[in-house]
Amino acid sequence: MKAALWQSVRNIQVQDIPVPQVQAGQVKIKVAYCGICGSDLHEYLAGPIFIPVDQPHPISKDKAPVVMGHEFAGEVVEVGEGVTNVKPGDRICIEPIYHCGECASCKRGHYNVCEKLGFIGLSGGYGGFAEYSVVPASMIHLIPDHMTWEQAALVEPAAVAVHAVRESDLRIGGTVAVFGTGPIGLLVIQAARAAGASQIIAVEVSPERQEFARKVGADVIVNPKECDTVETIRSHTGGLGVDVAYEVAGIEQTINAAILSTRSEGNIVNISIWEKPASIPLNGLILTERKMTSIIAYRNIFPQVIQLIANGQIQALELVTKKIAIDDIVTEGFEALTKNKSQIKILVNPQP
Ligand SMILES: [Zn+2]
Ligand SMILES: [Zn+2]
């Protein structure tokens, strides 16, 4: 079967590899769609970040080259011994987290902060950029009949946004600023709206992405190149600042602006993974008792996110800008996302 493998930085290759065999406790999936994620792009441009190169990942036991892709959905074609939660023919999406199940975090159900945290399609295993994948049965979630495959492939990134909003101090009627409107920022806008935000301010420099922010429900667009971001956000919130600011850009200036644009005792949520350390104004936190929250991935939320998308409360399909074949994954996928800000979410169909 064809699969896209990360070999090294700037080197992803579509190769013929054997179809994986299902083992006890595992499920084999015929992949319908797999989205290209911002973290896949990081691995392509500046990796390895999550991809194990020297030592195998402690849970997947795998290392580079790895089959990429963690945002995927498809049909169950075979189940291994002992699997009872799904059967062949079921339509499902994948929660791609590897966790040990034994550390203190896992024991209290917070498996997204597991000591051995990993992701299928990054930390090894059979990722979704392939005709077939094999995953542990615990990663499987059933989807409703009326949910499309495209919607199902968007559940994983939407889960990041929903987790961020749930972990934040947002209450119905609250005001929000979202810094950076790539795929996750756009989903945060939708999740905040679904959670009852009364005003959503999007901070974005790219005109193409400003357009997407407007389309998914931002009330105000602020372009930091054209104005003082903090002052402008204050002016839209009666001089106070927003209740919650979500940082999804991973830029020092942006996290600074996010902190200073919240009200006194406001909440800043760090969703970005940082390529290098950032200097932040700690007095901007302490002198007004602002709170900084950080989130990674998601936990215990997939069934609810599936419903939010299936119900239309999160319009995930608004993000899909292109569907491509696996043979074109580098040129039409990774390179297109690198060069063209009007590309948001590209879905790969790995079937021949
Ligand atoms: Zn992702
Ligand atoms: Zn653990």
Automatic annotation (TrEMBL):
Q: Which domain of life is it from?
A: Bacteria
Q: Which residues form the Enoyl reductase (ER) domain?
A: 7-348
Identify the SUPFAM superfamilies for this entry: GroES-like, NAD(P)-binding Rossmann-fold domains
Tell me the keywords, alphabetical order: Metal-binding, NAD, Oxidoreductase, Zinc
Q: What InterPro entries does the record tag this protein with?
A: ADH-like_C, ADH-like_N, ADH_Zn_CS, ER, GroES-like_sf, NAD(P)-bd_dom_sf
What cofactor is needed? Zn(2+)
- UniProt protein name: 2,3-butanediol dehydrogenase
